[in-house]
Amino acid sequence: MDKFHGWEYFFDKHAPEYMDNIFTENTEKEVDFLEEEFRLEKGDSILDVGCGTGRHSLELARRGYKVTGIDISEKMLARGREIADKENLEIEFIKANAVDFKLKKRYDSAVCLCEGAFGLLNIGEDPMERDIKILKNISNCLKPGGKFILTALNGLKKIREYNDEDVEAGRFDPVNVVEYFPAKEIIDEAPDDMILQEKGFLATELKLMHDAAGLAVENFWGGTAGDWNREVVKMDEMEIMVVSIKE
């Protein structure tokens, strides 16, 4: 596998045990939050970008919503399809890269959650351009007035975790708030030269990026998986949640 596709490799390898992660235990609570924030009505259409195994897509479908989930990992999607088939749920799972996907359908709401796509860089990608493309693709799929919820890694936390020694060693880029680490740190059989890159975000840049995509930001909140709330982002919180609306 070409190291350019490092995250696809990672998620393919991670698919079998993904649903065993502790944070997945709060999926129902997270979907309760989405229902409240989106003010969903039965039959509403929802796009889940970077859906992975479909833990949110599946729960939304169980509650009567029409869901499309896209993800770069075929093995993640296969797990989602398997569960959907067992429960007789109608979900459209599509293998696609969030950076360049196009859909004809327009949705009432959309989500991109828990680092399923946003902030996960591959070799040679510009940190800002890549994720603005994702936001534009999502915006293009929303109906006017449609709501979007994003959770992105909190750049403040990343900045506080690293020091000048990490910068000099090439483990952290303070300008773009990007962390670099060998895939072998989390996947034993990964190629020696596979480097994964994760970008953290500040609220100010997220606001500019949403503006560029035609998404008007309504709120910034703390967004750590399993503990979503409507409170100000804490310095060491894992994620930032952005709630926006298509202009």
TrEMBL record:
Signal sequence segment: none
Keyword presence, Signal: no
Pfam short name (any one): Methyltransf_31
Database matches in InterPro entries: Methyltranfer_dom, SAM-dependent_MTases_sf
Keywords on record: Methyltransferase, Transferase
Gene3D superfamilies: Vaccinia Virus protein VP39
GO molecular function: methyltransferase activity
Any one GO biological process: methylation
Protein source organism: Halonatronomonas betaini
Identification of the protein by name: Methyltransferase domain-containing protein
Domain called Methyltransferase: residue spans: 41-154
Domain of life: Bacteria
